[in-house]
Design brief:
Shape: globular
Strand content: 15-25%
Radius of gyration: 16 Å
Order of helices and strands: HEEHHHEEH
């Protein structure tokens, strides 16, 4: 992944941030688009893995993943509420600004999945 692509993703990520009671939050629906997931269900699977990692690290999932609703516009001025999740900047030791330009998102994902497996394995011991 090129340095310019990483910078663009980082900028999109930071621009999607909003403040809620002095806590940085992101809409999962917005992050879904930024990260290139076309289906909400597929992105929910990623969020569930992140929730498990949060829980395994001893953090309170409810502090970092809040179920919320979001209104979307439909035809003829109608609106409908859809499910969304407000996410905090829960850190697992990887921040976009710390990634070297040569490291692509798939490598990061594989490393995080490996970390999750290691934590689970260590817990079973």
């Amino acid at each position: 992944m090129k340095k310019e692509q990483i910078q663009e993703l980082f900028n999109q990520f930071e621009n999607a941030c909003y403040d809620y009671n002095s806590v940085e939050c992101w809409s999962a629906r917005e992050l879904q688009n930024i990260l290139g997931y076309s289906k909400w269900d597929n992105f929910l699977n990623v969020i569930e893995k992140a929730k498990k990692a949060c829980e395994n690290a001893g953090a309170a999932v409810s502090d970092h993943f809040a179920d919320i609703g979001k209104m979307i516009d439909l035809a003829k001025g109608a609106q409908r509420e859809i499910e969304d999740i407000a996410l905090t900047r829960y850190e697992r030791g990887v921040k976009p600004e710390q990634l070297p330009p040569s490291e692509d998102l798939k490598k990061v994902q594989r490393r995080l999945e490996g970390d999750e497996k290691k934590v689970l394995k260590d817990k079973k011991k």
